[in-house]
Amino acid sequence: MGMNVLLLGSGGREHAIAWRVSQSPLLSKLWIAPGNAGTLDLGENVTDLKPTDVESVRRFAEEIRADLVVVAPEDPLAAGVVDALAAAGIPAFGPTQAAAEIESSKSFAKDLMAQAGIATSASRAFEDADAATEYVRSLGGPCVVKADGLATGKGVTVCDDADQAVAAIDAAMREGVFGASGARVVIEERMYGRETSAHAFTDGVTVRHMPFSCDHKPVFDDDQGPNTGGMGVYSPPGWLSDADAEAIRIGVTERAVAQMAAQGRPYRGVLYPGMMLTADGPKVVEFNCRFGDPETEVLLPKLRSDLLPILEACAKGTLASVDVEWDDVATVGVMMASGGYPAKYETGKPIEGVGDVDDDVQVFIAGAQRRDGRLVTAGGRVLCVVARGATMEDARARAYDNVRRISFEGAHYRTDIGAKASLPLEFAR
Ligand code: GLY
Fold it and tell me: 299 C-alpha to center of ligand 1: Å?
């Protein structure tokens, strides 16, 4: 008997997870809630099931006799979906609500890092707007203001001066633009350097590291323009030394997993520290309690092992007995976005050419629908074209060659994804 699997989420990350899970010989049937146009052919989309509606998820998982529920986004994790499923005896991939606080409370993560001796920027948490304002005025220079709770990736303001920081404090604490998530803010020293995403599978004890990857947040080439949900990604960063990579694996990820266990909040699922390589060494920018998006889109195409038993082993505490092998290749993912994104954009534009890409190139749908048999745009980030290559240059060339075969009115994309993958750091490490 194969496994019944329910996957929660609806983006490019979930399309990539569904793509790999659907290839597993261990799978009986895959449901994706709510899923998207990309997951339609890989299983059954459950479009009316909201991942954050914990009770409905539990009921549906019982109804389909789920052997495993894979929780991809942070919101249902923070809402306690894994706890509710565990209470019903259903194994789930992802941390409990208490363990997900590593992402859902910036101040919890900062305290954890202080206790574990994990390198990060200096910071202070405030629940009083006047005290926070006084503090940033006393700093007088650059800093970072973070809403403590989840804020759909919009709760972080990188400030050049105190006036910007005061405006960010006002928005979070006085105007309430992030709701309860902004009632507390964390004010951090601003770090300078280059960012990379570390991902690892863990069952709370055993840790299996994934390759490093690098997201591109700003909308335009050369990191110009406003931030987005990610315009492209590559793996691995050639500029990351073996010593720094090992320092992150051991000194950050493994140390955090051990500290969570020591605190009675064993951490299971994917742990993804966002890292900054600074002149003083690698430092944590933030912890995420899930797979990154779009990082997942370039990681899973080079996973040689079957994904499903890995996810199951994380959920059941048996990761030590499962192989996690990676192909030694480069991958590049280029996001194609709607005209105007990340500001106002139109949807419903017919997408042409997805069927014309090379057989070994993946097109992961982030925001598109199938309407009357046609694929049409339905979001700001529409799709991510991912190619593998023996070298980064090879992967880049293949990704862009395939991107050029896909079109929709207003489509735009960055042309420099992965271009700096081998550029040495600006400082000695
Ligand atoms: N790549 C950014 C994130 O997933 O949070």
Answer: 13
